[in-house]
Amino acid sequence: MARLRRTAAALAALLAVGLTPPAAAEPAAAAEPAVAEAMLTERATTATGLAAQGRTVEVDVRRRDGDWVFGSGVLTAPPVHGAAPDAWLFLGRRTGNGWQIALDTGAGFAALAARAPESVLSLGEKETFAANARNAAAPTGLALPYPTGVSWTMIGGPHGWSGQPRPWSSVDLNGGDRRVLAGQSGRAYWMCRNGGHIRIIHDNGWTTEYYHLLDEIKPDGAPIKLGDYLGLTSTRIPCGGSAGSNHVHYAVKKGTAWTALNGLTIGGWTFREGSRAYSGYATHQTVRRNVGQQLTNYGPDDPG
Ligand SMILES: [Zn+2]
User: How close is the Cα of 162 to the center of ligand 1, in Å?
Assistant: First the structure.
């Protein structure tokens, strides 16, 4: 218990610095340390461990009604090459013992979502979360995040959401007029408080993530269509990491879990890992494109 109390005190100190200060008596404010603790627990770290890496906790309560809260939480990325923030949507319900927090990567999220009032989670969002959890399967049905028929450069082949660590779920892309578009229809959320990171949850069971966006939209669960504008490629790092040149860090999850791109077909290209992160290649029929070469986006439904 003493250790738990110390953890809570460290969290409170961290949050006092990192969070906007709503009135302390509000239930939503009281939820924030519980959300932070849930995120740190999922990453098997502590507030002091995170701070030692130069990282911070962001908890952004977007909606609240009575004993319920919904929002986005982030553990910012360390300032190293390829690192990207850990980000979750969360749902919280106040109980007699404090807050019950469910992160969207957790098994309890769907069940809690089903019980949330529609003032906190709309019927459409509940349907999207349920469909996403139910339908995860190949083929991906995803396009590359730019216009169909247009070619962009693959400046980084398959690598992890945060660089080296597997699974290698991400590619770095740039080109054209830098306008990054939704890879498929779904519901979109902005993740970092300062923007620049968008998550789209697709009904077909896949989830796509976009980081380093500039002049981005800030959707809060809004329905989004294939090809809708999200933002521009850039070197922005609104919640940590680093980027050496303009690009979008485009990543896929199966359901809510990072998954390797290796063998997946997106935009008509089947991605293959190399021996190192950021190497690898993609194939379309008999064409092979390596890192530094261009990928024409064939859209979501090309049989390849
Ligand atoms: Zn990347």
Answer: 7
CA of 254 to the centre of ligand 1 (A): 18
Q: Find, among 119, 121, 126, the residue nearest to 66 by Cα.
A: 119
Distance 170 CA to ligand 1 centre (A): 6
If asked whether residues 197 and 292 sit together in one domain, one would say yes
Which residue intervals of the chain are DSSP H helices? Answer: 2-18, 27-42, 47-52, 109-115, 123-135
Residue 167 lies in a domain: yes
- Confidence band for 17, pLDDT divided at 50, 70 and 90: very low
Ligand 1 centre to CA of 171 (Å) is 5
* Domain-located, residue 145: no
CA 5 to chain centre: 31
100 and 162 fall within a common domain? no
82-92 pLDDT per residue, tens: 999 999 999 99
